[in-house]
Amino acid sequence: MPLPADNVLFEHAACGLMLTDPDGSILRVNTTLCRWLGYQADELRGRLRLQDLLPIGGKVFHQTNCVPLLQMQGSVAEVQFDLLHRDGSRLPMLLNIVRRRHGGQLLDELAIFMATDRRSYERELLLARKAAEAALEARLGAEAQLLQSNQKLQMADRRKDEFLATLAHELRNPLAPMSNVLEMLKLQGPHAPSQDWSVRVLERQLQQLTHLVDDLMEVSRITQGRMALRRQPVDLAAIVHLALEDARGMLQNAGHTLDVELPPEAVIVDADATRLTQVIANLLNNAAKYTPRGGHIWLGLQCCGHEAVVSVRDTGIGIPKESLAAIFEMFSQLTPALERSQGGLGIGLALVRGLVALHGGSISAASEGVGQGSEFTVRLPLAQAPLQSAEDTPPATGVQGLRILVVDDNVDAAESLKMVLELLGHEARTAHNGTSGLQLAEEFAPQVALLDIGLPDVSGYEMARRLRQPSWGKNIFLIAATGWGQESDKQLAREAGFDGHLTKPIDLEQLEALLLQIKH
After folding, report:
1. pLDDT tens-digit profile of 244-284?
2. Which residues contact 139 (CB under 8 A, 6 or more apart)?
3. Closest CA to 468 of 459, 480, 481, 477
4. Checking phi first, is residue 234 left (phi over 0); if not, alpha (psi -120 to 50) or beta?
């Protein structure tokens, strides 16, 4: 295709073209610019100057800015002027001017562009930029609010964990004297049938309350990452038997039928026996609690590949399909508190899931729906190391006649424990703060000292360190008695000079086991 002639390109270019001499006289102008300005070429050429097409302000700017630049550098780029239409209206234009020599004569070449579309584009661009900035600001604001909300949620979650831990610890204080009084009643010998029945009721309810407090403490430790396991190869069948003993009372009281299926061979897992007993006992207690009286419960243990599988199945109230995913969440309950016939804090299954996860295992729940029963399945990795058989040890016999000092600011706890120790054949004294406890220790010369940690004047740790300083206190068998029972708490007790550590309420069997270590 042949190209158009140069004259056609000039006349109908996409921009206005003009040629002037240095004083602005118009020598040539193309059709495009004439059409924009409303003139014929002959009306401009040789008759008007560029300055005649400019308003007053444009004339001043041309004389004071453009002319000096053309003289110095020979060009002016993208200068915006309003050019006057023939009817007197103003048209926004963008001018590029180059001063060049043509045959020995200096001439100014002008390329002129309509700026109306550009202004519209710039307006749209500015609006788009403002919209983008507003959107970015809104997004940053939303992200800041989300971050602030997350921080508040984390703070609330941390405070909740701290509250649960503190609540569980504080609940141990009234549990301790209650447990001591119950042990004292049992040690005092046979009673009337009604009194024996009352003691058994108190014992069951106290055990239930202690379990709830323990669960609160354990869940708090797991959520705060402070749970420490004491793992070793254990036979899972033995763990199942321990859990059955723990749950047997509830199963029998509810009149349930229990079927247990265990494999003939040992199922060895690397685990903390106490924690796994908690897991299975919790599942059995849940099955007993949420199965109508006279129901059926199955407990099974088997090996599947490299895993040990424990399952607890029941004919209980079942779990709605929509609740299966949330059943292991903290405080999860299938029904509102006022509609539940059975108690519970909604933390048992959360505790079970946390303990199983710490062992590298998993737990799942299955149910066909309301009234169709449920099944919980725990999977644990089998251990690689063989089970180490414990050496046979002769049965322990109780020890009597020890001088024991009890220091606790809870007067009921201290005095009731003193009575229990005296019924066991020991001589006991009490003090209710660290200062009086140190004075009494020097006078009484105890062989054993049971020290509360949270004393009002000095901590139990500090009291233990002070007792170890004089010669008469170096051989005292020191036992920390506290509501805090984490491994880190026991480590602090050892560093302070304690020989043993007991968690409130004190288990008499554990206390007597420690007392057996005393050398008369």
Report:
1. 888 887 888 888 999 999 999 999 999 888 888 889 988 99
2. none
3. 477
4. beta
> Which amino acid is present at 275?
R
Cα–chain center distance at 473: 46
How many CA within 13 A on the CB side of residue 325?
1
Please say whether the dihedral angle defined by the alpha carbons of residues 161, 324, 359 and 485, taken in this order, is positive or negative: positive
**Which among 132, 15, 36 is positioned nearest to 90, based on CA atoms?**
36
The type of residue at 258 is L
Helix or strand holding residue 362 (H, E): strand 362-366
Cα–chain center distance at 386: 37
Angle, alpha carbons 244-250-254 (nearest 5°): 125
Query: Which residues, at least 6 apart from 36, have a Cβ–Cβ distance to it below 8 Å?
Result: 16, 83, 85, 91, 114
Helix (H, G, I), strand (E, B) or coil at 303: strand
Q: Where are the beta strands (DSSP E) in 103-205?
A: 105-114
How buried is 45 (Cβ within 10 angstroms: 0-12 exposed, 13-18 middle, 19+ buried)?
A: middle
The answer to whether the CB of 342 falls within 8 A of the CB of 352 is: no
Per-residue confidence (pLDDT) for residue 316, from 0 to 100:
92
- Contact assessment for residue 216 and residue 278, using Cβ atoms and an 8 Å cutoff: no
